[in-house]
Amino acid sequence: MKDACQGRRHVVARMIDYGSGKMSETPERQHAEQPRRRRGPRIAIVALLLAVGLAAIAVPILFRLWKDNAGRGGQQPAEPFHITGNLYYVGANDVTSFLITGPDGHVLLDGGYPGTAPMIIASIAKLGFDIKDVKVLLNSAPHGDHAGGLAALQRASGAEVWASDASAGALASGGDDPDAMLPLRALIWTGILSYPPVRVDHRFKDGDVIRRGPIALTAHVTPGFTRGCTSWSFQVHDRDRVLNVVSACSLTVVMGLRYPGQGADIERSIRVLRSLPADIWVTSRGRPWGRYRKFVASQTAAHPADAFVDPAGYRKFIDDAEADYRQGVTH
């Protein structure tokens, strides 16, 4: 009789509660489940602490890798080469720098990212020149990909920096352009997009000529990309001919940078660049003027300089930039 009663109690204990749809549990089963339920939160806490610990180790490493890569903008070293006369390419794979050599000291145009300065110095040395013989540093635009390495190059060479009136403030502040929109300026203020401040030794105006011995470069302030965007024109001697070289500052409209009269500035800059005679032309980025393509062609050309003579490409560069501007394209 006692066994039968106990059996009924077990049956009742395991009956389905049809109101809730759940199976009732016996005290014995509840007691057996308690240690397992207690272990669950403990495992979760241990896993969380382990994840936090791994993150604490990984984040500084990843940040350092990101900072190193950002410091050079993803640029890689490129083979330096002679273009013609006293003009040489010493930049990275896309962000450009040019060396103009002379008996009284050299001129270096554009400094790339902060992290590409060592590449530029190494390229100058590979060509048989010394960074300490660079006496003049010039710039196209005060953005971090063209001016970021100027401070390091200035320290290494002792050279003097020349800048347009409109670019000087941004260079001296490490890239803080007052025409940039607030979110972009905030990234500069926090150091994310800034670069080492540059000591500006001289300011020039549109049409001024920067001289170093026989070297003479004419500054053409061609605003629009930035207020102080500067294109440069100069001549090089190739055998028995004189070639006109133009380093054209960008004509693109950049998202996040606006100022009154910007449209009129771009219109004027297009006219100015069209008026400049150009046998050889370059820009602060290698792809628009075909850096690698022309370098490869020069290696097999009967006369290497011929690979860089490209007046038609210069006109197309301006035409394409004007078409983008008319269509409202921003970058």
How would you describe the overall organization of this protein?
By secondary structure, the protein is of the alpha/beta class. It has 2 domains: 26-71; 76-326, Ribonuclease Z/Hydroxyacylglutathione hydrolase-like (Metallo-beta-lactamase, Chain A, 4-Layer Sandwich). 42% of the residues lie in helices and 19% in strands. The protein has 11 helices and 14 strands. The protein has helices spanning 2-13, 27-71, 117-126, 144-147, 150-157, 165-172, 182-189, 262-275, 286-289, 291-300, 311-326, and strands at residues 16-17, 22-23, 81-84, 87-89, 98-100, 106-109, 134-138, 160-164, 202-204, 209-212, 215-221, 230-238, 241-248, 280-283. The strands form 3 sheets. A 7-stranded mixed beta sheet has the order 3-4-5-6-7-8-9. The chain starts with a helix and ends in a 5-residue tail after the last helix. Mean pLDDT is 87; it is low at 1-25 and 58-69.
